[in-house]
Design a protein that fits this description.
It is a single chain. By secondary structure, this protein is α/β, with parallel strands linked by helices. The protein contains 14 helices and 18 strands. About 25% of the residues lie in helices and about 15% in strands. Helix 7 links the parallel strand 10 (about 295) and strand 11 (about 315-320). Helix 2 packs parallel to helix 3, helix 5 (about 210-225) packs parallel to helix 6 (about 270-285) and helix 11 (about 390-405) runs parallel beside helix 14 (about 495-505). It has 3 domains: about 30-130 and about 210-240 and about 265-485, Glycosidases (TIM Barrel); about 135-195, Oligo-1,6-glucosidase, domain 2, CATH 3.90.400; about 515-580, Immunoglobulin-like, CATH 2.60.40.1180. Bound molecules: 1-O-alpha-D-glucopyranosyl-D-fructose (TEU).
């Protein structure tokens, strides 16, 4: 086994957090309204112990890098005890850390170190389903039909003479049926249980008081340990329609009501809002009020329905997947921005923006394909048409700079600041995502966006782990994109993000509102922002021809390739975003 170089320049940057948690009392509450929140996917961020899977000590060691990058908070995908049937989104114990990732003491150390650096910590909460290894589900299997133990989940008798047909026609989001039949104590086929996701992720019955009480207690457990908020997994799924009626439509995410106005019986039911009202009361009971937040992961369409999750007494934020799924065209993006901002304004909530996460093809890859919206959730594999990597990165930089200029809160996914693409040629035999297995290999699934981060170009596993092990292989392209290759290199994607985040903070771009400027032509999205330093013009050019900036503006940032692109910002090349101060 080879060893890492003695000095890893990305490990210990000289950190000077601009807005420390303690340094500005005004930021103690409502910090989330304009926050930039960085998603860490623990198994792929940094491996401290060398087993090839990232862990909490690995993350803690890299927190200075994140403070230096200029984000306000980190959101950690699940690190709880889990058999890892869905990479930890199948939780067996909500109050403990899986040994793969470390211990509770490691979680406490991570939170403490983050707070020292002025970073907030948001943890993932998975309330729709547990793991099949959760003590409740094991008890439900053992106890048999009609028992109080089964009542915490959605067990039903099957249809047909011998109950051999599932109780309804719902399909799993990951492919295949949404029901699995169990064997009863006598060994005979028995009841079925519902799982909107994998067989190993049984859905809880949220009409059950014990289920509701349990999650209030889990919230308090992590709040008492000092976390600043929760990202709530499939927040729109907890409550199902009475009687679990058939739904012959596809179980599509982002599925709103049908043309007849009928809501899918598994998504976005009215009673789910009661759950978040009780959660909000718990969060607000922690001092100072307004310091703890929740963000809904809810694939709900249209934006007006999504906004109902962020009413004043419910969640603080919801991910804006309409923006993420929009095509690379000015009209589509403008409509997504306008509609989201307007829908949120009605309920007084800030809008969020996100371009990548652990479920979707990274935007540096997606934007190098013909239809970026088509790849949400399904991945790209070696037998699919391959993306144009150069075009994808070029557009991704422009898209990120556009996103970071918008008012509200922005979510970044680990590695996007390096311009990382998906691994689109992962071999079949390393894949782990249940989406791949449940589609019997007909769709690639989400492993391609979950590949471990390259920190050091010349180290084994690009510095991800001290032993060179890596739970998924990294593509060769990750070498040149390693953090150490980009640090201090003007024009690199990493330095572009650092510059954008610093400017965003100085100019307070997360606050206030925007106006569109229609004078630069139909191929351009141009918006104006009022800032403490004056008016800022943001221009993204989607056309083939370069576009001149108006006279008398002072450039601040450009996503064009090469060093110091902001020194010659006009004309704005194709697929480039420029920020400029209007003097
Ligand atoms: O995802 C919810 C979800 O339905 C989608 O993101 C979906 O996984 C994807 O588009 C594939 O079709 C959340 C988590 O983010 C995801 O990682 C989990 O697998 C899922 O819930 C189940 O917990």
């Amino acid at each position: 086994m080879s060893s890492t170089p003695a000095v890893d320049p990305t490990l210990d940057p000289a950190v000077d957090p601009v807005v420390g948690l303690g340094s500005d009392p005004a930021r103690a509450t409502d910090w989330w309204r304009d926050a930039v929140i960085y998603q860490v996917y623990p198994r792929s961020f940094a491996d401290g112990d060398g087993d090839g899977i990232g862990d909490l000590p690995g993350i803690t060691a890299r927190l200075p890098y994140l403070a230096d990058l200029g984000v306000d908070a980190v959101w950690l995908s699940p690190f709880y005890t889990s058999p890892m049937a869905d990479a930890g989104y199948d939780v067996a114990d909500y109050r403990d850390v899986d040994p793969l990732f470390g211990t509770l003491a490691d979680a406490d150390a991570l939170v403490a170190r983050a707070h020292d650096l002025g970073l907030r910590v948001v943890v993932d909460l998975v309330p729709n389903h547990t793991s099949d290894e959760h003590v409740w589900f094991r008890a439900a299997l053992a106890a048999g039909p009609g028992s109080p133990e089964r009542a915490r989940y959605l067990f039903r008798d099957g249809r047909g003479a011998d109950g051999e047909e599932p109780p309804n026609d719902w399909r799993s989001v990951f492919g295949g049926p949404a029901w699995t039949r169990v064997s009863e104590a006598d060994g005979r086929p028995g009841q079925w249980y519902l799982h909107l996701f994998d067989t190993r992720q049984p859905d809880l019955d949220w009409s059950h008081d014990e289920v509701r009480e349990e999650f209030l207690s889990v919230l308090r457990f992590w709040l008492d340990r000092g976390v600043d908020g929760f990202r709530v997994d499939v927040a729109n799924a907890l409550v199902k329609a009475e009687g679990l009626p058939d739904w012959d439509e596809k179980l599509a995410l982002l599925s709103g009501a049908t043309e007849e106005g009928e809501l899918p019986p598994m998504w976005d039911q009215e009673e789910v809002h009661d759950v978040y009202r009780t959660w909000r009361a718990v969060l607000d009971s922690y001092e100072p009020a307004g310091s703890r937040m929740m963000v809904a992961e809810a694939w709900v369409d249209p934006p007006e329905r999504l906004a109902r999750y962020v009413r004043a007494d419910e969640m603080h934020q919801a991910f804006n997947f309409t923006f993420l799924g929009a095509r690379w065209e000015p009209a589509a993006l403008r409509a997504a921005v306008d509609r989201s901002v307007a829908a949120n304004a009605v309920v007084g909530a800030p809008t969020t923006w996100v371009l990548s996460n652990h479920d979707v093809v990274r935007h540096a890859t997606r934007l190098g394909t013909d239809d970026p919206g088509a790849h949400v959730g399904l991945g790209i594999g070696p037998r699919d048409p391959q993306p144009d990597a150069e075009l994808g990165l070029h557009r991704a930089r422009a898209a990120s700079a556009l996103m970071l200029a918008l008012p509200g809160s922005a979510y970044l996914y680990q590695g996007e600041e390096l311009g990382l693409p998906d691994h689109t040629t992962l071999p079949d035999d390393v894949r782990q995502d249940p989406t791949w297995f449940r589609h019997e290999g007909t769709v690639a699934g989400r492993d391609g966006c979950r590949v471990p981060i390259p920190w050091v170009a010349d180290a084994p596993a690009y510095g991800f782990s001290p032993t060179g092990r890596s739970w998924l292989p990294q593509p060769p392209a990750y070498g040149d994109l390693a953090a150490d290759r980009q640090t201090g290199v003007d024009g690199s994607t990493l330095e572009l993000y650092r510059r954008a985040l610093r400017l965003r903070r100085e100019l307070r771009l997360g606050e206030g509102d925007h106006t569109w400027d229609d004078t630069l032509g139909a191929d351009v999205l141009a918006l104006r922002r009022r800032t403490p330093l004056g008016e800022v013009l943001v221009v993204t050019n989607f056309g083939d021809a370069p576009v001149d900036l108006p006279a008398g503006v002072r450039p601040l940032l450009s996503t064009a390739p090469g060093p110091h692109p902001e020194r010659s910002p006009s004309p704005v090349p194709s697929d480039v975003t420029v920020w400029a101060l209007v003097e």
